[in-house]
Amino acid sequence: MRDLLRGISIGVLFATGILAYAYYTNSPKTNVVEKEYTIEDAITYLQKQDYEVIKKENKVESNTPDESAKSGESQEDNKQTGNNQKETIKEYKLVIEKGMISQEVADILYKYGIVDDAEAFNDYLGEHNFQTIIRPGTYLLNSQMSYQQIAILIIN
Hints:
The chain is mainly alpha-helical and 156 residues long. The chain has helices at residues 2-25, 39-48, 65-70, 75-81, 102-111, 118-127, 147-155; strands at residues 91-96, 137-142. A two-stranded antiparallel ribbon has the order 1-2. Helix 5 (102-111) runs antiparallel to helix 6 (118-127). The longest helix is centred in the first third of the chain and has 24 residues, at 2-25. The protein is flat, with a radius of gyration of 28 Å. 10% of the residues are buried. The model is unreliable at 59-85 (pLDDT under 50).
């Protein structure tokens, strides 16, 4: 019995040695060529696949601090010149990653002007026991949404 086990062990070690030698001595022969695609390439591809491509005509207000600084006009300038006729609706694409806590989500939403008070939104989530059931994902939110609408969106 001992000789049988010894023979099997030697066979396994020998086979492992041959496979390791073949794996580490052969160089990979993959030639990966990365190509940059343009929007026109993507549109052409989608049209070939029988998808309808609709271009968005009206632009959404940017909600990144860098781009709003580049616009040249601040909200204070608009108030002084009288150009602030309507309140602008801010949109934001919220990405919730696994492990994020409700306070982080509230802080992000406050930073981009979706909620008016991060603490109040976090308190709302706590009062309704939503803090522990926030789901990771990507959500499109805007500044006209209520706390309830935002909460329902991020927990479902």
